[in-house]
Amino acid sequence: MLPDFKKLKSEAIEALNLYARRRGQMHMGVVGEVPRHSIHEGHENSIVRENGDEDKTEIHQAEHEATIKWSDMIDIDLRTVAHKIDAAAKDIAQQQSEHFFKTVSEGANKVGNVVDGKGQGLTADLYFQVLEKIQVDFEPTGEMSKLNFVVSPNQREAVEQIIYQFDTDPEIKKKYEKIMELKREQWRAREAARILAG
Predict the structure, then answer these.
(1) Would you give the end-to-end CA distance of the chain in angstroms?
(2) In whole angstroms, what is the distance from residue 192 CA to residue 198 CA?
(3) Secondary structure of the chain in the HEC alphabet?
(4) pLDDT tens digits, residue range 141-153?
(5) Burial category of 44 from C-beta neighbours within 10 Å (exposed 0-12, middle 13-18, buried 19 and up)
(6) Alpha-carbon distance 82 to 191, whole Å?
């Protein structure tokens, strides 16, 4: 009978799980950067909004099935296992990302926090409307915290045009700075309230 290397097996499983988590996060892109927490039991999650409304979200199960034939077990190597894990991580990441955007979209629609461009395409004005509706945080230095916008790949040229306008159009730059100052004041008020309550 062959010896059972329990410690080695445990370390190998831990390493493969870590690899799966890291590949999944990489495949999720910007969604992988969203803070997360574990829910160990139950079938839904809820948040209470500032106005007291409770918003419940059903827990979504992401899954992937992979098979390895018995006939392939003799020649299987770490590269094959890593490839299978990466394929699973990619599939699960896609499911999680789709669920994330669906949940965010439903939540935004529910509270009326949506900007409808009515098919006109992305413009600086639409960008400002979005910016006015969201909460923006700042670093203690006064610099804006990292802010991610997810747009369709076919909007790339429009985004580049808006960035160009920020640098070249004084009116657009002035409007942006005015919105940012308002956001900075809102952030200071939130921080002051948090410190007083804490």
Answers:
(1) 62
(2) 10
(3) CCCCCHHHHHHHHHHHHHHHHHHHHHHHHHHHHCCCCCCCCCCEEEEECCCCCEEEEECCCCCCCCCCCHHHCCCCCHHHHHHHHHHHHHHHHHHHHHHHHHHHHHHHHHHCCCCCCCCCCCCHHHHHHHHHHCCCCECCCCCECCCCCCCCHHHHHHHHHHHHHHHHCHHHHHHHHHHHHHHHHHHHHHHHHHHHHC
(4) 888 898 888 888 8
(5) exposed
(6) 45
Q: How far is CA 142 from CA 3, 148, 166, in A?
A: 61, 18, 20
The pLDDT tens digits for 37-92 are 788 887 788 888 777 888 888 888 899 998 888 888 888 888 999 999 999 999 99
pTM score of the predicted model: 0.75
Question: Distance between CA 198 and CA 181 in Å, rounded?
Answer: 25
Cβ contacts of 96 within 8 Å, gap of 6 or more? 24, 28, 31, 60, 62
Distance of CA 140 to the CA centre of its chain: 23
